[in-house]
């Protein structure tokens, strides 16, 4: 059964992965991805992620349901954090389980592309010289075209 969590607290990646798909005899592939805060500019102190709780969890749940309808998934797990996150901190995790690897990989990529470009989060970079809201990237929008 798919689970979506939108949370401020850091998640335990090892525990999430260890528990995901456990005891499922029908699963032949598990794919996981963890997104981290990276510092492309060399002076990022933190990333501040804001969201509207009711809207965000519902939107992610809907896209997970779409993935489950498009690929043969046995299970799906999405975690996305909000709040002030420092460089190197995990932002999100996607895990998919399927009978075959193609379904697990494709569904995971679809979910990651969606989370990067369409999930209703607002991100602000906090640097020593000020703050800047993060704008959508053309490359992220183009990634959605394959779906």
Overview of the molecule:
The protein has four helices and eight strands; from the N terminus they run βαββαβββαββα. The chain is of the alpha+beta class and 147 residues long. It has one domain: Aldehyde Oxidoreductase, domain 3, CATH 3.90.1170.40. It has a four-stranded mixed beta sheet, with helices on one face. α2 packs antiparallel against α3 and α3 runs antiparallel to α4.
Give the topology, please.
Elements: E1 3-7, H1 13-19, E2 29-36, E3 44-51, H2 53-70, E4 73-81, E5 83-86, E6 90-98, H3 101-117, E7 121-127, E8 130-133, H4 138-144
Parallel strand pairs: 1-4
Antiparallel strand pairs: 2-6, 3-5, 3-7, 4-6, 7-8
Q: How do the SSEs run, as a string of H and E? A: EHEEHEEEHEEH
Class in CATH?
Alpha Beta
In the CATH hierarchy, the architecture is Alpha-Beta Complex
Strand order of the largest sheet: 1-4-6-2
Radius of gyration: 16 Å
Helical content class: 25-40%
Strand content: 35-45%
Outline:
By secondary structure, this protein is α+β, with helices and mostly antiparallel strands.
Key terms:
single chain, 147 residues, alpha+beta, Aldehyde Oxidoreductase, domain 3, four-stranded mixed sheet, four-stranded antiparallel sheet, 4 helices, 8 strands, 37% strand
């Amino acid at each position: 059964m798919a689970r979506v969590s939108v949370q401020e607290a850091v998640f335990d990646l090892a525990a999430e992965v260890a528990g995901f798909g456990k005891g499922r005899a029908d699963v032949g592939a598990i794919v996981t991805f963890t997104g981290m805060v990276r510092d492309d500019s060399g002076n990022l102190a933190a990333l501040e992620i804001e969201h509207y709780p009711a809207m965000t969890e519902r939107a992610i749940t809907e896209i997970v349901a779409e993935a489950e309808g498009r690929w043969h998934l046995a299970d799906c797990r999405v975690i996305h954090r909000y709040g002030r996150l420092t460089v190197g901190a995990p932002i999100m995790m996607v895990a998919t389980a399927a009978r075959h690897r193609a379904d697990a990989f494709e569904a995971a990529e679809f979910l990651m592309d969606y989370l990067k470009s369409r999930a209703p989060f607002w991100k602000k970079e906090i640097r020593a010289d000020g703050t800047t809201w993060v704008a959508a990237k053309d490359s992220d929008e183009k990634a959605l075209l394959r779906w």
